Amino acid sequence: MISRGYASQPSIAEPAFGNAARRLRYTLAEPGPTALIACRETIISYALLRPLLFRLDAETAHHWTLAALKNAHRLHLLGAGGVPASPRRVMGLDFPNPVGLAAGLDKNGDYIDALAALGFGFIEVGTVTPRPQPGNPRPRLFRLPEARAIINRMGFNNRGVDYLLTKVQQARYRGVLGINIGKNADTPVEHAVDDYLIGLRKVYAAASYVTVNISSPNTPNLRSLQEGAALTDLLSRLKREQQVLAEQHQKYVPVAVKIAPDLSAEAVAEMAAVIRESGIDAVIATNTTLAREAVAQLPHGGEAGGLSGAPLTRRATEVVSQLHSVLGDTVPIIAAGGIMDGDDALAKRRAGASLVQVYSGLIYRGPALVREVAATLAQAS
Ligand SMILES: Cc1cc2nc3c(=O)[nH]c(=O)nc-3n(C[C@H](O)[C@H](O)[C@H](O)COP(=O)(O)O)c2cc1C
Questions:
Q1: What is the pLDDT at residue 79?
Q2: CATH number of residue 95's parent domain
Q3: Using a 6 Å CB cutoff, which residues line ligand 1?
Q4: Which of 229, 261, 318, 359 is deepest in the core (most CB within 10 A)?
Q5: d(Cα 149, Cα 205) in Å, to the nearest integer?
Q6: Ligand 1 atom at shortest distance from the alpha carbon of 310
Q7: What is the H or E stretch that residue 331 is in?
């Protein structure tokens, strides 16, 4: 079974911050004594730093924030406590709390230990593809603060599965680690299954669970794998390979499939039936949306890519509910999509989700969101 245990959890105490904005520069540039103070503030007083980060290009801010987080973790500034324990067993795995980090924030597994120190009950890294690829040209990541939303068309930029595996091996984290796999952009969609099989074989032994991502809107034709015969074929071949690997490694690693929100109720119901018949272990709902009604008038609202954050909340919850009406308790649902506070997570739970994941909410709310969501769900159980 899984040898990864649980992450240490942070103290997210209220800050006494001074010139945190000025000190942020030091934090990122030089991990000396000044950085030590600034690192604490960088993590703790996210509300103060957010306007500064939001003045930077979104992708630059993303890298700077993760670098600062890693520094803070190296300097042991992320202590234990703060996120309430709320253990649950899903997919045969033990989760210390039901709040996970959604895929795409740590595509290469570079920040596993630092992210774990924020108190997540599980972490999903990737999407990773068999071969490294650069993704789409920049700019490809846009914030829409008026809507608490993000549009991205990253296009699975990643350093390839072998690099990710070295990072997973180097990580000290022993909690639940999902590895999210995808196909290379230049692999024709008719051969997509081959890429997923390569990914599954490579990551199997290192993962607590594996997510099959067929729902990114930024890899041409990827979402066609969600349809009818293509889905049945993909899932049955992955399931057969999982059985072979389970025998080989003497370890059963659950496989989850991640779906899009841009499907009719009938299509969701059909997918749910295929997923149930396939024996797949879980479904993650949802990825980003192509819908734009909520943001069309806003700056960047017309950018191509997938929209996430607050405008996705309702639709993603609806998909969870539609899935649950078919799946009942046969296949667990992991909910993602617009969880910006504890109540959003509670709505996902009430719609039928066993676990939740956050991404955009973390960008807008900072690490305090993890504690808030975990506390709300713990109180409601
Ligand atoms: C910048 C960015 C990159 C993402 N990359 C991936 C990815 O590589 N793989 C994946 O399965 N989902 C990816 N996602 C989707 C998220 O995991 C999540 O499903 C989606 O954003 C909805 O959750 P949210 O509203 O909390 O962000 C990405 C999302 C964002 C914002």
A1: 61
A2: 3.20.20.70
A3: 102-104, 107, 127, 141, 150, 152, 154, 156, 180, 213, 216, 258, 287-288, 308-309, 312, 336-339, 358-361
A4: 261
A5: 35
A6: 25
A7: none
What is the predicted pLDDT for the residue at 85? 93
Residue 220 burial by CB count (10 A; 0-12/13-18/19+): exposed, middle or buried? exposed
Domain that holds residue 133: 82-380
Please report whether residue 56 resides in a domain.
Answer: no
24 in any annotated domain: no
**Alpha carbon nearest to ligand 1 atom 1, residue:** 152
What SS3 class is residue 95?
strand
At 29 the pLDDT is 33
Q: DSSP label at 301? A: T
292 belongs to a structural domain: yes
Distance 132 CA to ligand 1 centre (A): 19
Per-residue CA distances from 372 to 99, 118, 249, 312, 346 (Å): 10, 12, 38, 20, 11
Residue 301 lies in a domain: yes
Total domains in the chain come to 1
Q: Please name the amino acid found at residue 62.
A: H
| Strand ranges (E), 70-121 | 88-90, 93-95, 99-101
Q: How far is the CA of 288 from the centre of ligand 1 (A)?
A: 6
Q: What is the pLDDT of residue 81?
A: 61
**Residues annotated catalytic, as ranges:** 216
Ligand 1 centroid–CA 74 distance in Å is: 26
For a ligand 1 pocket test, name from 225, 287, 319, 348 the mutation site with the most ligand atoms within 8 angstroms of its C-beta: 287
Dihedral of CA 181/186/189/190: which sign?
negative
Distance CA 222, CA 220 (A): 6
Q: CB pairs under 8 A, 24+ apart, for 243-247?
A: 245/200, 245/201, 245/204
Mean pLDDT by 10-residue block, N- to C-terminus, for the chain (381 residues)? 35 29 37 36 67 91 93 81 90 98 98 96 98 98 97 97 98 98 96 97 98 93 89 96 98 98 95 97 98 97 98 98 98 98 98 98 94 96 81
What pairs with residue 30 in β-bridges?
none
Tell me, in angstroms, the distance from the centre of ligand 1 to residue 186's CA.
21
